[in-house]
Amino acid sequence: MTFTPENIFFLGAVLIFVSIIISKWGYRFGVPTLLLFLFTGMLFGSDGLGLEFHSHEDAQLIGMLSLSVILFSGGMDTKRRDIEPVVTQGLVLSTLGVLITTVITGLLIFYLSEWTRLDIGLSLPLSMLLAATVSSTDSASVFNLLRSQHIGLKHNLRPLLELESGSNDPMAYVLTVALVDMIVQAGEFSGMELATKIVGQLAVGGLLGYLGGRALVWIVNRINLPNPSLYPVLMLCSILIIFTFTDMFQGNGYLAVYVAGVVAGNSRLSYRRETNTFMQGITWLLQILMFLTLGLLVNPGEMIHVLLVAVAIGLFMMFVARPVSVFLCLQPFRVPMRAKFFLSWVGLRGAVPIIFATYPVIAGIEDADFLFNVVFVITLLSLSLQGTTITAAAHWLGLATDEPKTGNDFGIELPDELESKLSEMTLTEESLADGNRLQDMHFPAGTLVMMVKRGNSFIVPNGQLELRKGDILLTIARQEME
């Protein structure tokens, strides 16, 4: 079956609908959602139910659009107070760690034909290109698994993983594009030239991302639109503008949108609740669309010919390259050994390497189809083996805790423009020692009790309300926003 204007909307809706239903099953059994979306695309693809989709250009376009929004949304969810203790470790992992992984894996691929009976025969630049495409990690599926099973992590591992996964894609992208350009131009492999491109793209991307984020916050807070529903749409358009504008100036667009998201997420922002709800929905939609597209693009029959090579490379990355890069990068920091082992194991490969693998194909590089199929198999292997054992690894290493509480028991949120903070307080015998009425409680100046939760009941209080042990008080207090 081929895509036509008459059936594309119907087929697209069916694919997304089926993916959502399957994802519910995956949450229950601890299977990464990404893996299920990929399998759904493969099921409906040319080797499955017969949907024909072979455009790497369209897949790359969908991937670029999706990644820019996903990275911006991830940046908005990255709170400065959470990442400040681990910002250096995270940035080292996302830059030097990606480079170390690429070099170690690239050398293995280059010498694999000599050391084993596997016939690869790739040049050193092509070996490094293959390694670069799979050098970044995708921790989104890790968070989905941990949150679905209500598991938190000790030693600030969650913010460290969030920072690394959000900032290592730009590094892998720079490596991939730079190597593709060098191979296409048939130039010599120059480490200095590669380093110059990396530093230049990252510097421009970071600077324009920060300026773009500041400009976005300024516009959103001052434009005063007549309809609140337009603010999320304005945000979405701004993401694409920042991405393309940065690319025009030879910067890294992925880094720019992530930095812009971090700036926006840690600033006072009008209509934040509406914007967050919209961004969560559009992010999920784009993730599903991206994974389905990549699943449709691949031909499972072609992966059989690269299975042994891909499995060998994938296992080497899991058990050698990733652990070596993690231990080397974190050596100067006081990170517990158990945490290093966990970080080594959660280096999941996701949709990003598959998208990056389309660049050699579009550039017409020899053996590009071989590279693409190898990357796809490595991704499936990583998600199947590592993705399904994340929870078990956290418990086995003694790193699992109860998931940090988000929101409050009252389901109430305040817009940023009120410059106020909601807090909860559970009453104990000690807190009722001076009296059991609300007027007997001693709160800091400027703090008001909005509501009291007693069991399943909610009470709007006054000063004469008699309080009991176990009551939960929702308080509001003014705070200065940054």
The secondary-structure element order is HHHHHHHEHHHHHHHHHHHHEEEEE
Total number of beta strands: 6
What portion of the residues fall into strands of 2 or more residues? 5-15%
Give the termini separation: 55 Å
Structural class: alpha+beta
Q: How is the biggest beta sheet arranged?
A: 4 strands, antiparallel
Number of H- or I-type helical stretches: 19
Average predicted local confidence, pLDDT: 84
Summary?
This protein is an alpha+beta fold.
Question: What does it look like?
Answer:
The protein is of the alpha+beta class. It has helices at residues 8-29, 33-44, 56-76, 80-83, 87-115, 124-133, 140-148, 157-184, 191-222, 230-248, 253-265, 272-297, 300-303, 307-329, 337-345, 351-356, 358-362, 368-385, 390-396; strands at 151-153, 400-402, 420-426, 447-454, 457-459, 472-478. The protein has a 4-stranded antiparallel beta sheet with strand order 3-6-4-5, with no helix packed on it. α5 (87-115) packs across α6 (124-133), α8 packs across α9 and α8 packs antiparallel against α11.
Which descriptors would you attach to this protein?
about 475 residues, four-stranded antiparallel β-sheet, two-stranded antiparallel sheet
Which helices and strands occur, and which strands form pairs?
Layout: H1 8-29, H2 33-44, H3 56-76, H4 80-83, H5 87-115, H6 124-133, H7 140-148, E1 151-153, H8 157-184, H9 191-222, H10 230-248, H11 253-265, H12 272-297, H13 300-303, H14 307-329, H15 337-345, H16 351-356, H17 358-362, H18 368-385, H19 390-396, E2 400-402, E3 420-426, E4 447-454, E5 457-459, E6 472-478
Antiparallel strand pairs: 1-2, 3-6, 4-5, 4-6
Helix pairs in contact: 1-2, 1-12, 2-12, 3-10, 3-11, 3-12, 5-6, 5-8, 5-14, 6-8, 8-9, 8-11, 9-10, 9-11, 10-11, 10-12, 14-15, 14-18
